[in-house]
Recover the amino acids of this structure.
């Protein structure tokens, strides 16, 4: 051991920064992954608190726990937080940490750009949340429908935070997407053909394509809104001939691919966890790759199913009904392949496995109600009711979040070298699973009984008080489960049992290196000869290479330009809030200066 | 070519595809840009003929004038090709001259755009006047901003070249700036065709 460390010193020279400054200037994909992870867990708690506030308000009819205006801000920020500040970045956290390890790379393709993405994301999140300080958080829903979001109907700064904040966050997502597409195309280890990549990397690949294609459309939609609100253009103003439906088209052209941006990473996680704990290779690997890619592709042709109620006409309705239903086919294929992977396997129900299996069950329920909305006449009955809320919480809480929980239990030993506590984990799972179903299952009924969403209270005459009380109890149980989860993370990090390098005896490359991995990931980049490099022939060589003492390895040095550039970009957008036309130019000049320094910084 | 210099993270000379990572990354970024301009152009087309008050496109668009500025921008792409060829061959004078010419032609295009915007303003078309004004100025404004970024980028490269910092081994940086420049040029061809010619 001592000699191995001496050799590491001989071959690899760390940059020698420590503490806070190290985190601020890091360009290491693993540290950036942890920054993304920690930040999104904090936002998960904030978004969760907003949800609990909403549920407390709805615990009984005609309640006045919070005002209607506060309710609007809470449900809007809950949606924005869970989509942009939790769902996307927590997936990106795992992409960052795991994808380079799974493909046998030392880092992502553009390490400084990666740091820049994170800092822009953090600045965007802080900007969005700074709206609470002045009591004017966005209040027009996460979908921000025009023309309610326009200046005459929303005169305060609330929706300015929305249009500018999402613009900042979108820049981070596009940069992240470019980085991961390039990383996966370019930095695969020798022999790591596309069709040998683990499913999680594949889904990261598809998700990244969705990021780079969907986010620019949102950027344009938001620019139009910003121009309308700040400089009196007429993009969504009917008085001047503008069409509010244009916003809906642009928003959902982004928004539906966004749904797959949120769920495909969870599909990837489940596709890693289930084979590992079934001791079987993934059933139908190729079809899993094709179906994931197909979901990404068809995901671009279904956006208007969010808009059946706008009256698109029978031909458009029929088209989008059919295209939406078609997506159920590759999704169903995935579900059956997961089940077939488990079939006849030596199942081991660790917490990670429980969350994956629970995810399949919950996601399937959400998927079925999704096919119900796909039918446009059916959707007209359900739209704007709690039935829709039930649907998308089953796929996002039951699908995305349970998938991410599964992934965090699965990869925690790799990241920290310690095991998470299984007893606490199982409490976490069962409380979450029960709480989730108690919260969201009754919403199907209250929705069909006619309870509208986005309304701060309801009348006792609707006779949904008991079911709503049940939902609120369920949400509190989820809150307890979330606290158990955080406690488990902290406790296991401090005094978890040593995990070893491959505690689950998993098959993919990230388990070949040490836990936690060294900064350069692999002593020698292993050569991949098959789809399960740690299960099939040649595994000894792969492990020997991965854990070998490094030869000369050059890792990019830390940099403070990413955080400065991010602050510059966020400031530029924030200065629009002053309504002084030249103020953003100051931010722009500062950003340009940072970009120049960024571009000319030496990376050797 | 010295891949190691352009692949700091990988630490090994080869990439999985054999392509340069910066180049692949930039192509991916341009793919994203396509969707950005695609959305802007689509909005213009959706809102065509929807303005409820003038001035209308046929009253303000000056096709002969814009044909000249379009020609200037197209020629700048030719200059870009010659600049890259000069840098790749190590012909410093050719590289520097044409790099500067691209920036000059790009600036000329921006000058035409500034003149055009001022003319429209005098004819009563502003950002707020009608849907045509909103969609036209925002679309061409974003394109102009891209050209401006390109001009700054090219001038930066030109200054580097003057200092002797653009040897053939670094031609890739010029090539990537070229990719950007040609992309912005192609977007203009789409804008010129769809907005000016097909009224």
């Amino acid at each position: 051991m001592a000699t191995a460390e001496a050799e590491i010193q001989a071959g690899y020279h760390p940059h020698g920064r420590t503490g806070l400054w190290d985190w601020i200037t890091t360009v290491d994909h693993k540290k950036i992954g942890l920054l993304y992870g920690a930040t999104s867990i904090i936002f998960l708690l904030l978004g969760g608190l907003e949800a609990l506030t909403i549920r407390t308000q709805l615990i009984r009819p005609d309640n006045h726990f919070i005002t209607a205006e506060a309710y609007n801000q809470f449900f809007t920020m809950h949606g924005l937080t869970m989509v942009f500040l939790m769902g996307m970045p927590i997936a990106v956290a795992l992409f960052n940490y795991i994808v380079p390890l799974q493909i046998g790379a030392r880092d992502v393709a553009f390490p400084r750009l990666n740091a820049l993405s994170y800092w822009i994301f953090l600045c965007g999140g802080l900007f969005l949340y700074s709206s609470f300080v002045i009591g004017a958080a966005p209040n027009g829903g996460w979908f921000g429908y025009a023309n309610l979001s326009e200046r005459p109907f929303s005169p305060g700064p609330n929706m300015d935070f929305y249009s500018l904040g999402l613009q900042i966050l979108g820049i981070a997502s596009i940069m992240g997407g470019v980085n991961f597409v390039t990383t996966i195309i370019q930095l695969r280890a020798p022999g790591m053909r596309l069709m040998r990549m683990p499913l999680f990397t594949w889904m990261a690949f598809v998700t990244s394509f969705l990021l780079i294609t969907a986010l620019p459309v949102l950027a344009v939609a938001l620019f139009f809104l910003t121009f309308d609100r700040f400089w009196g253009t007429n993009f969504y103003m009917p008085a001047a001939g503008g069409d509010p439906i244009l916003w809906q088209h642009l928003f959902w052209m982004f928004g539906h691919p966004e749904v797959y941006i949120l769920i495909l990473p969870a599909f990837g996680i489940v596709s890693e966890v289930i084979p590992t704990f079934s001791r079987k290779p993934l059933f139908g690997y190729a079809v899993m790759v094709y179906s994931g890619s197909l979901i990404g592709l068809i995901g671009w042709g279904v956006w208007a199913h969010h808009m059946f109620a706008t009256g698109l006409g029978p031909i458009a309705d029929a088209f989008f009904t059919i295209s939406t239903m078609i997506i159920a086919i590759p999704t169903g294929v995935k579900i059956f392949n997961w089940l077939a992977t488990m079939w006849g396997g030596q199942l081991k129900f660790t917490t990670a496995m429980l969350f994956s299996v629970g995810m399949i069950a919950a996601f399937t329920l959400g998927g079925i109600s999704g096919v119900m909305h796909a039918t446009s006449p059916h959707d007209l009955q359900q739209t704007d009711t709690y039935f829709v809320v039930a649907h998308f919480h089953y796929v996002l809480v039951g699908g995305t979040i349970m998938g991410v929980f599964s992934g965090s239990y699965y990869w925690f030993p790799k990241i920290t070298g310690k095991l998470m506590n299984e007893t606490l984990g199982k409490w976490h799972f069962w409380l979450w699973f029960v709480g989730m179903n108690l919260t969201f299952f009754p919403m199907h009924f209250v929705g069909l009984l006619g309870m509208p969403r986005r309304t701060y209270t309801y009348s006792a005459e609707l006779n949904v008080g008991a079911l709503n009380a049940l939902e609120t109890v369920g949400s509190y149980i989820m809150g307890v489960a979330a606290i158990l989860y955080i406690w488990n993370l902290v406790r296991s990090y401090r005094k978890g049992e040593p995990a070893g390098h491959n505690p689950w005896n998993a098959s993919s490359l990230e388990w070949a290196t040490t836990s936690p991995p060294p900064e350069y990931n692999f002593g020698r980049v292993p050569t991949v000869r098959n789809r399960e490099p740690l299960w099939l022939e040649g595994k000894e060589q792969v492990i020997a290479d991965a854990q070998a003492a490094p030869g000369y390895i050059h890792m990019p040095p830390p940099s403070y330009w990413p955080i400065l550039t991010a602050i510059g970009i966020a400031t530029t957008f924030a200065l629009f809030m002053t309504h002084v036309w030249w103020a953003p130019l100051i931010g722009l000049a500062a950003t340009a200066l940072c970009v120049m320094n960024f571009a000319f910084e030496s990376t050797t | 070519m010295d891949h190691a210099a352009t692949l700091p993270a990988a630490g090994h000379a080869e990439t999985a595809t054999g392509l340069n990572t910066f180049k692949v990354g930039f192509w991916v970024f341009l793919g994203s840009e396509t969707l950005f301009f695609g959305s802007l152009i689509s909005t213009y087309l959706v809102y065509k003929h929807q303005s409820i008050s003038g001035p209308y496109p046929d009253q303000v668009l000056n096709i002969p004038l814009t044909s000249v500025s379009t020609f200037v921008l197209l020629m700048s792409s030719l200059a870009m090709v010659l600049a890259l060829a000069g840098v790749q061959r190590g012909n410093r004078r050719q590289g520097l001259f044409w790099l500067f010419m691209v920036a000059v032609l790009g600036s000329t295009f921006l000058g035409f755009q500034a003149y055009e915007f001022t003319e429209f303003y005098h004819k009563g078309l502003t950002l707020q006047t009608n849907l045509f004004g909103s969609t036209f100025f925002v679309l061409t404004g974003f394109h102009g901003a891209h050209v401006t970024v390109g001009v700054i980028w090219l001038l930066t490269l030109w200054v580097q070249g003057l200092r002797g910092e653009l040897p053939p081994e670094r031609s890739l940086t010029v090539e990537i700036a070229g990719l950007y420049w040609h992309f912005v040029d192609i977007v203009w061809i789409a804008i010129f065709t769809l907005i000016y010619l097909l009224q």
Observations:
- Chain B touches chain A through 39 residues (CB under 8 Å).
- The domain at 33-197 of chain B is CATH 1.20.120.80 (Four Helix Bundle (Hemerythrin (Met), subunit A)).
- Residues 1-12 of chain B have pLDDT under 50 and may be disordered.
- Chain B has one domain: 33-197.
